[in-house]
Structures are given as C-alpha cells and as structure tokens.
Amino acid sequence: MASIVSATEAQGMWMLEASIFPENVASIRAHERVGFRVVGTRERIGRFHDGCWRDTVLMERRSALAGLD
Prior knowledge:
By secondary structure, the chain is of the alpha+beta class. The chain has a single domain (about 1-60), classed as Gcn5-related N-acetyltransferase (GNAT) (Aminopeptidase, 3-Layer(aba) Sandwich), CATH 3.40.630.30. It has 2 helices and 3 strands. The chain has a 3-stranded antiparallel beta sheet with strand order 1-3-2, with helices on one face. The longest helix is centred in the first third of the chain and has 9 residues, at about 1-10.
C-alpha cells in the first residue's frame, strides 16, 4: 500500500479515500499505518444480497507533498 501512496503523490494527487467495513480491523489498521485517518462512518450505505444494510468506515489520507507548488 505504501507504494500506491508514493505513486499517487508523485502524480500530484492530494487525497486518497477508502471505504472499509467496520469489522475489518486489520484493513483499518493497515490504512492507518500509511497515513489514513478515520473521518466518519457511512451508515447503511450498501445493501447486500441477503437484504442486510451495511455501514462502512470512511478513511482519507491527505498528501503533505502534492499541491504545494
């Protein structure tokens, strides 16, 4: 994931977003390790084939490099 962050910064992208199921703690922690932060929970954002509505954790990473011309 760190290589993706580096590549996007090299291209001048200033923000990345991720939407992760709340129970996927390993993925949330992996995103935090490369600079993402939790910005909120999107409630009932998707409905699955079994009819269950699901929440997602919205995370973002803002670049310290891109857009600082």
